[in-house]
Design a protein that fits this description.
Chain lengths: ~500, ~100, ~325, ~500, ~200, ~180
């Protein structure tokens, strides 16, 4: 038996049953890709993508048993399934709002749809990777699609500039992650999380420390933590607003999930290295994100900085490398989806009207013109600020709990102080909406879909904020799944 | 035989050079080139470890890095062309429409 | 000591190969000129030596002794470097081309190749495509518009056909199961074992690709005299000028013909009617036939437009080669 | 000392929290003109419910009555746990009556009526929730929810510098409450580590015996949150701004209810949870309290803006509450609680008076006023009663509380009590001066002003009905305080049981 | 408006496309030419005689008795002996020439009243061999010969004089006068090489 | 001294010097030229290590396919006239980079790397070629990432075409200077 035969002998047919969601999403992407060549009907394209994704989301519910398939390169467990479900659902919400926006901005490309879906596919691969190879490849599929999405705005220079900055930083991040993977490979001789765990155990030497540090740097770059955040505001401002919403919510959450997965499944016993690293990054992110956001006059940019700050809040949970921290991270990231997407869709709904810009001045008196939409925005703002009964409070509460339970008092204090700073700019938006007279003339046309999306998300923010038990339960279960997965092959 | 560690050290040096390139260069094309340099450095490390480990998975990984380098280069150059068409310049200091 | 022997062996072989290649290239120019002359009912060179046999040497002397003009605003370093960059990779392909099986003479085993890498074909492809830089940089360094356009055209053509060439090579590789050129030759047994019978599509694609890569008519847009004076080498003169056609038209064509022969015509295989030397003779005969075929095509057809050429590359050749891979794969699976 | 839990047959507390919310939803859905009646009716219903509870409350022993508990976030041991003891109940009752007054007064509001009433209704629910919650997270949630409507009330319906004031109010309170949150979570985690009980219930945390240093840390964290809300002396600067800029009803609620939350927190949490720390911090609190009393009283004298004056007087009164609380004896705490009620009534009434003046004369500045008494006699009478109650005239509510608080303080620190007592004189001075500058000094009036004043209308029905309950209860408490003291005595005993024993 | 007429190229059939038949046809043509005999002459060693109507350097016919009738009229006023140039200095050639400075013609009146041409120089550096002067000549004097090697070492040498021209004229007439007027030196050979021209 | 040792030092010297050239050449064309040189040197290092397939692909894909696009873009973009590097960043990053390099070098030389965990010893490489070993893994176990990589390339191709297209920037007539 030659060595090649030995290698091939152990490999059977992969379990395609558990890959149904990915397959459906892939087919949807390709279908849209082909359809886009033949039809000019944008409604058709968006309908096909939404229906495809919806079927994909539903198909997740049919999977009852997890599996490790594709020869150990793909893990389907509750953790990945739950995240996939949320990712798909929120992608659908982003997609349905894309259509009116790009149409009014005259930047229509059918490519938007399948690029988003490809990006989604990358995230799905990323969150269900038990292996650095599939993690890397999924991360790249996501990033590459996103670079294009940012730059894809007809005749808009800013879009190109933002995309380029994003690309350069992202490229450097990719290189750093690759280097980290190389060092880990050299250290353990494997890409597999379980193998890495068995090889490393709690023995950490300088090589592993540097590898993990580089991995953290690279992932922080992708998750836009300070000091690697420079691309974020530019790319967010440059992209079409629903795409920004997609990036700020869906791709970020996927990144957090994969950060959690890598850190917990590959280096659970070396948490002394990474929890401290993430804690420092999170602290700096909170401080810089919030203080810079204070100065912004453009609400979209302000939300971008606020998302940096939220990266800080969410990653702060990793400073407490135990079940509580992971639960807090999962919970906060899941609920952050609602706030972030809602906020950006709100912007997009108004921005598509001719004389409206994202400038804070234009928010004056919005509550008089659109009391209900303004109320939704108020809910988002207070949620991001972390005021109960919105869900943002519950997220911060979990992070507080985790931090204090691990005695990371300094980070808790930083979180508190920066939260108070953040009140400065979130309240400004509310104040401009409610406490000034309108300056912009004319009526806004809001699409019913946009109204529905913003309203639905706002109501969800309130409902989950008041009754977060379900989401806490989900987070708890996911955490336990994650922890049970350690070292299992 | 040269110890494999030397190859890794070399890859570290190239990596640092690439990083410096990304930071200090003012020409946007050169920045993109520097990222390519970084990815290449990684390739050396992978192959060196691979040979040390008597494994070939590292070389398989190099394939993916090649793919991604190609993808990033293609998109980056497309963007550079677009930027150049609009701005008639490739100086990074002129890319200042997004600020704050 | 071992190392010294290896180095010396390689150096000697390299020198033989390079010098031989230079001479061969020089005489290939003569062959081409004769051929072109007769196609046009002219006799070609006649007077230097018997029927112009010394003409290449005279030409070489002329080129070497000519004044080497460097125009004013060129990028000097790149201007000099470009001609070398076009030439060296073309020669380097020879490193992986085997001319026969190893044989023993006077008790010394002689390998008629420099290296036998198991990825020889890829390396050949790689070196072949590096020469593109010579052309582009020549065009860029000249700081003049005709060379620039010529260089860009060449690049466009090369990119297109390099892909088709690479994919077309996959068919024979799949049949032989190796990248090594020697193993590919060994896989072709007998007259009907030659891969030309099984891979006609690949062969046609490769023919087109070689024509395009070496810049021969009908794909010689890079130096379309009517439009671009002389294309990318307009500003060159003297020896620097001489290197370009030498590399492209002669060494390039010759080496690629050799690879095509290895891939499709069984390389040096043939009836043993010339004794020890028969592999060489067969090989060079086949390569020569190939080369003559290219000359024949060159002096027959008119030139395509550059957009037509790239269109053929991407819309015809690439799908054809992919189709070929597909068919080959199916046949291999069916045959088991 | 373990409390008894008397479960409610009918979830009366939950209902009284839900009624305003449901009313808010109805207002949101219906036309603008239904907003006022629905709000008033709902607040009256809540008032009736709270009065019912007050009357049926069993003051013997320490019982948590009308108790309800449902699991909320079981993963963290967080539950929805409400119930009342006497302290809570008085506060709920005060809230209910204040909101009735505020709604009745607000019938003349015209700007963005729907939003106005929705904000107030949500505020009412949150305020009641704060006082009845026995689960710390629930308490915190209500505590924070209250910020949103209050922020909007000040910011949207306030006066010229409303946005600055609203933001300042919000950020100050938010700042304090986040430290409160850290403290609560710290307690919770510590409890989990010590006793292996995952619970945020008040009584579970009460069982915790903390190390002295930890106790001090947690005391400080919680005290910061409460002190800002009270507001105690160095943190009081948001209050004048907020009071001045808020609309009249907003000021009433702010003074009558929101300020009580801080002192409520001190009494409810700091004293029972951190007895040692409370003792330790007693001098500090006394100092701060005395400074608050004297300094702000002085500040009040210097004011020419009547709302600002009343605001400073509030700070001064809350100083009495502080020292009464930290006297750490029965009399002191009783006095503090009675002062809280009384201050709720009097300051509410005073702000209503200020609102009345502004509505009639469109000015808060004393130099524009004077000599009104002759033209608006009914108002002048009611204003006089309120002012006297505020100044601490015996027979009115203010006197009882302050007297008891001083009595308690005397037992502990004569110096503090003396200083605080002396400042009563200053208090009387500014109150009387306020009354004199606005109502009397007829001789300073010009002819045009007289003519203008002669057209003034006295209190209309709504205004009268918003004044009357406050004034009535000032008399009730002032004349027969024993009922209240009996009501709260056992609760006070419970609050102090770790400090004084038993 | 001009209506353009497009002539469609004949479409190739599928078979032709697949087998590159047109391409092979082209190769066939080339190959046929390849094996043909070359038609090149090795010039300095082999020289072709141009056809009679070739327009080479100019020459003068001499008076030899074959003159046209016009000459006999003019002859009376001219002093021309047999064997001398027929030129009557009428300046017609100069008039016809697109490059008038090419000619330098001088004539004198002899004491006997007759006219004598003393100078007939042509600067061939200026000549473009159009042959108009030859057409203009009334006495059939100026002709063009089959001499095509006009290269000289000095510029002065390019000016030809009357005597040389007379000599050349004599020589040309001697060689070619009797020759029939043909397109090529040997039509049979041309037909063999280039094929019969079919006049439609 | 063995041949491979000499080769290592020579090739790495070339690689490093050219990499420095990539970073510090003012003329972007020279930068690209240096990049090509670096890439070829790196490919030589791969051959030296025994990874022939990667070495050849390094030249074929990297040095040719990718860099050609750079060259084409540089040819269409006129020569850049500004400074090569930002002096303040350069001053800052030189010591920083040096320290980083020292650290990485220390790590790579003194790190406890695993060795000989796999089954592909040099003998086996001789038996089945390097290409075969890599291909076997690539097309069996790692087929899934390989397919995803093809998706990445598809996306990148679409993106490059879309972004480079003319109608995505303003029309030449309108915006022309």
């Amino acid at each position: 038996m030659t060595i090649v035969q030995q290698l091939v002998a152990g490999l059977g047919v992969p379990n395609f049953q558990v890959l149904i969601p990915e397959i459906i999403v892939l087919i949807t992407a390709l279908l849209v890709f082909v359809l886009e060549l033949f039809t000019k009907s944008r409604i058709l394209i968006s309908t096909v993508s939404v229906v495809g994704l919806a079927v994909g989301a539903l198909s997740i519910l049919t999977i009852s048993e997890g599996a490790i398939t594709l020869y150990g390169l793909y893990i389907v467990d509750s953790f990945s399934l739950a995240f996939k479900f949320f990712l798909i659902v929120f992608t659908i919400l982003a997609i349905v709002n894309l259509q009116p926006y790009v149409e009014s901005k005259k930047t229509y490309y059918g490519e938007y749809y399948y690029l988003i879906i490809f990006s989604l596919l990358g995230m799905m691969i990323m969150v269900s990777s038990p292996n650095l190879v599939s993690f890397y490849i999924g991360l790249e599929l996501m990033s590459v699609s996103t670079y294009i999405l940012v730059g894809l705005w007809k005749k808009d220079y800013k879009s190109k500039e933002g995309a380029f900055k994003y690309l350069i930083m992202g490229g450097a991040g990719t290189a750093i992650i690759s280097y980290a993977i190389a060092l880990i490979y050299g250290k353990t001789g494997s890409f597999d999380f379980a193998r890495i765990f068995h090889e490393v155990q709690d023995k950490s030497d300088i090589g592993l420390t540097v590898a993990v540090a580089l991995l953290i740097v690279g992932l922080a770059l992708k998750a836009s933590a300070v000091p690697f955040h420079f691309w974020t505001p530019d790319a967010y401002e440059a992209a079409p607003t629903p795409i920004t919403g997609f990036m700020a919510s869906v791709s970020k959450i996927a990144t957090y999930a994969v950060i959690l997965r890598v850190m917990v499944e590959a280096f659970p016993l070396n948490n002394a290295i990474w929890s401290y690293g993430w804690a420092v990054l999170a602290g700096v992110s909170m401080v810089v994100g919030n203080f810079v956001a204070l100065k912004q006059k453009n609400v979209k940019r302000m939300l971008a900085y606020s998302s940096i700050a939220h990266t800080g809040y969410i990653l702060a949970a990793l400073a407490s490398p135990n079940g509580m921290g992971f639960t807090a991270l999962i919970f906060y990231s899941l609920v952050y989806l609602f706030m972030a997407l809602g906020g950006f869709i709100f912007l997009s709904a108004f921005e598509k009207n001719g004389n409206w810009t994202n400038d804070i001045e234009d928010f004056k008196g919005l509550a008089k013109k659109h009391p209900i939409m303004a109320l939704y925005m108020l809910i988002y703002m207070f949620s991001m600020l972390g005021i109960p009964p919105t869900v943002g409070f519950m997220g911060k509460f979990g992070v507080f709990l985790a931090l204090i339970s691990s005695n990371v008092w300094w980070l808790a204090v930083v979180l508190v102080v920066t939260s108070i700073v953040s009140a400065g700019y979130y309240l400004r938006v509310v104040a401009y909406m409610y406490m000034y007279e309108p300056v912009k003339e004319g009526r806004f046309y809001l699409n019913p879909i946009e109204k529905f999306t913003v309203g639905f998300l706002a109501v969800m923010v309130l409902v989950i904020g008041i009754y977060p038990t379900v989401f806490w339960e989900i987070s708890n279960v996911l955490t336990s799944v994650l922890i049970m997965n350690i070292g299992v092959r | 035989m040269v110890p494999y560690e030397y190859y890794v050290a070399l890859s570290g040096l190239l990596m640092v050079l690439g990083l410096i390139g990304v930071i200090v260069r003012k020409n946007i094309i050169a920045m993109l080139i520097s990222t390519e340099l970084m990815l290449n450095a990684v390739n050396i490390a992978f192959v060196a470890f691979d040979m040390k480990l008597h494994d070939v998975v590292g070389q398989v990984f190099v394939f993916f890095i090649l793919t991604i380098a190609a993808a990033e280069a293609a998109i980056g150059l497309g963007l550079i062309m677009a930027i150049y068409r609009m701005k008639k310049d490739v100086d990074v200091e002129k890319l200042t429409e997004l600020k704050g | 000591m071992e190392m010294l022997a290896t180095v010396i062996g390689v150096v000697i072989k390299s020198v033989i190969f390079i010098v031989g290649m230079f001479l061969a290239a020089a005489y290939l120019t003569l062959i081409e000129r004769k051929f072109a002359g007769h196609v046009q009912q002219r006799p070609g060179p006649l007077h230097v030596g018997y029927h112009g046999l010394l003409q290449p040497i005279a030409d070489a002397l002329k080129v070497l002794t000519k004044e080497d003009l460097v125009p004013n605003n060129v990028d000097k370093v790149l201007f000099y470097l470009a001609s070398l960059m076009a030439f060296v990779p073309a020669i380097m392909i020879l490193a992986v081309v085997p001319f026969g099986d190893p044989f023993t003479i006077f008790g010394i085993e002689i390998k008629p190749f420099i290296t036998d890498l198991n990825i020889g074909l890829i390396l050949a492809l790689a070196f072949g495509s590096i020469s593109i830089y010579g052309v582009i940089f020549a065009g860029w360094a000249s700081n003049s518009k005709y060379p620039m356009i010529g260089g860009l055209r060449k690049a466009a053509v090369l990119i297109g056909y390099e892909v088709a060439l690479g994919f077309a090579m996959v068919g024979p590789i799949m049949m032989a199961g190796s990248f090594s050129l020697r193993e590919i030759v060994q896989a072709q047994e007998g007259f009907f074992g030659a891969f030309i019978w099984y891979q006609p599509i690949a062969f046609i694609v490769i023919l087109f690709a070689i024509l395009a890569e070496t810049g021969r008519t009908p794909f010689d847009v890079q130096e379309a005299e009517a439009e671009l004076v002389s294309g990318y080498n307009t500003e060159y003169s003297g020896m620097k000028f001489g290197l370009f056609p030498l590399a492209e038209w002669y060494i390039g064509t010759f080496v690629l013909s050799a690879i095509a022969v290895i891939l499709f015509f069984g390389g040096w295989k043939g009836p043993h009617i010339f004794g020890v030397l028969s592999p060489f003779i067969w090989f060079f005969l086949k390569v020569f036939m190939m080369f003559m075929f290219f000359l024949w095509v060159h002096w027959t057809l008119p030139r395509y437009r550059v957009d037509q050429i790239t269109e053929i590359a991407w819309k015809v050749m690439l799908p054809l080669s992919l189709l070929n891979i597909f068919i080959t794969a199916i046949i291999i699976i069916v045959k088991g | 000392m373990t409390p008894e839990f008397v479960n409610a047959g009918f979830p009366i507390i939950t209902v009284s929290i839900l009624i305003p919310l449901v009313a808010a939803a109805i207002v949101f859905l219906l036309n603008e003109k239904f907003a006022k009646p629905i709000s008033i009716v709902s607040s009256v219903v809540v008032f009736i419910l709270s009065s019912y509870m007050l009357l049926t409350y069993d003051p013997s022993g320490y019982k948590i009555q009308f108790y309800e508990k449902y699991a909320w976030i079981p993963q963290f041991g967080i539950s929805y746990e409400v119930g009342v003891d006497a302290l809570s109940l008085t506060m709920v009752w005060l809230t209910a009556i204040s909101f009735v007054v505020a709604f009745v007064w607000s019938t003349n509001i015209e700007k963005r009526v729907k939003e106005y009433f929705i904000a107030f209704l949500v505020l009412e629910a949150a305020c009641i929730g704060v006082f009845v919650a026995w689960d710390l997270v629930a308490f915190y949630v209500f505590w924070e929810v209250m910020l949103i409507p209050m922020f909007l009330i000040i910011g949207v319906w306030g006066y010229s510098e409303r946005i600055y004031a609203a933001t300042k109010f919000f950020i100050y309170t938010f700042f304090g409450s986040l430290f409160l949150l850290i403290g609560v979570i710290g307690m919770y985690i510590y409890n989990y580590v010590e006793n292996d009980v995952l619970s945020t219930s008040y009584f579970d945390l009460l069982k915790l015996s903390l190390h002295y240093n930890l106790e001090i840390i947690f005391f400080l964290l919680l005290a910061l949150g409460f002190a800002i809300k009270v507001p105690m002396w160095p943190f009081h600067t948001w209050l004048p701004a907020a009071h001045v800029q808020a609309p009249t009803a907003g000021s009433v609620i702010l003074a009558a209810v929101l300020l009580k939350m801080g002192t409520y927190g001190f009494v409810r949490f700091n004293l029972p949870w951190f007895p040692e720390a409370s003792k330790y911090f007693m001098p500090v609190m006394f100092t701060l309290g005395v400074i608050a009393i004297i300094y702000t009283a002085m500040m009040a004298i210097a004011q020419t803006h009547i709302k600002r004056l009343i605001a400073y007087s509030s700070v001064s009164h809350m100083g009495f509450v502080t020292i009464g609380t930290f006297a750490l004896n029965q009399e002191g705490v009783n006095g503090a609680i009675i002062t809280m009620i009384s201050h709720g009534l009097t300051s509410g009434a005073l702000f209503l008076a200020a609102g009345f003046i502004y509505e009639r004369l469109h000015s808060y500045e004393m130099k524009d006023l004077g000599g009104m008494a002759k033209f608006v006699p009914v108002f002048a009478t009611l204003f006089m009663i309120s002012a006297m109650a505020s100044a601490g005239l015996p027979g009115l509510s203010g006197f009882v509380g302050e007297f008891l608080a001083l009595l308690g303080t005397f037992k502990v620190s004569i110096l503090t009590a003396t200083l605080a007592g002396l400042s009563l004189v200053v208090g009387a001075a500014y109150t009387l001066w306020l009354y004199k500058r606005t109502m009397f000094e007829e001789e300073l009036l010009t002819e045009e002003k007289k003519e203008e004043y002669s057209k003034l209308k006295d209190l209309n029905t709504a205004e009268l009905w918003s004044f009357l309950p406050l004034v009535i209860f000032m008399f009730v408490i002032g004349i027969y305080p024993n009922w209240w003291i009996n009501l709260i005595n056992n609760t006070t005993h419970f609050v102090l049981h770790k400090i004084v024993g038993g | 408006m001009v209506k353009l007429k497009y002539v469609e190229r004949p479409k190739l059939s599928l078979l032709e496309k697949l087998l590159f038949l047109d391409f092979i046809k082209g190769l066939k043509v080339t190959f046929k030419n390849l094996i043909r005999k070359t038609i090149t002459t090795k010039y300095p060693y082999e020289k072709l005689t141009p056809p009679k109507r070739f327009r080479g350097t100019h020459a003068h016919r001499v008076k030899d008795g074959n003159e046209p009738p016009s000459f006999s009229v003019l002859e009376k006023f001219m002093d021309i002996n047999t064997g001398e140039s027929r030129c009557v200095a009428c300046y017609m050639c100069q008039q016809a020439c697109p490059m008038p400075s090419l000619f330098r013609i001088e004539a004198v009146q002899l004491p006997n009243g007759k006219k004598k041409v003393v100078r007939f120089d042509m600067n061939l550096l200026n000549c473009l061999y159009c042959g108009l002067c030859v057409d203009a000549c009334p006495v059939d004097c100026l002709i063009m010969t089959d001499i095509y090697e006009t290269a000289k070492y000095q510029r002065e040498s390019c000016v030809i004089h009357m005597d040389d021209m007379s000599e050349r004229g004599k020589d040309f007439d001697r060689r070619r006068l009797k020759e029939p007027d043909r397109i090529w030196i040997d039509d049979q050979e041309r037909i063999k090489l280039w094929g019969q021209i079919k006049w439609s | 001294m063995e041949l491979s040792v000499v080769a290592f030092w020579v090739l790495s010297a070339i690689a490093v010097i050219s990499a420095i050239g990539v970073v510090f050449f003012k003329n972007i064309v020279y930068s690209v030229l240096s990049l090509i040189s670096t890439l070829i040197a790196i490919s030589g290092l791969f051959f030296n290590l025994g990874a022939e397939l990667i070495g050849a692909l390094q030249i074929l894909i990297y040095a040719v396919a990718i860099v050609v696009f750079y060259v084409l873009v540089i040819s269409t973009v006129p020569q850049y006239k500004g400074e090569a590097v930002d002096p303040k960043y350069a001053l800052l990053s030189a010591p920083f980079g040096f320290i980083l390099f020292l650290e990485l070098a220390y790590v790579s030389v003194y790190g406890l790397w695993a060795s000989n965990t796999g089954i592909f010893s040099p003998d086996i490489f001789k038996e089945i070629s390097n290409a075969k070993a890599v291909a076997t893994l690539l097309f069996t176990k790692y087929l899934f990432p390989f397919e995803v990589a093809s998706l990445i390339l598809l996306v990148a191709m679409i993106g490059a075409i879309l972004l480079g297209k003319k109608d995505i920037v303003e029309d030449e007539k309108e915006g022309g200077a």
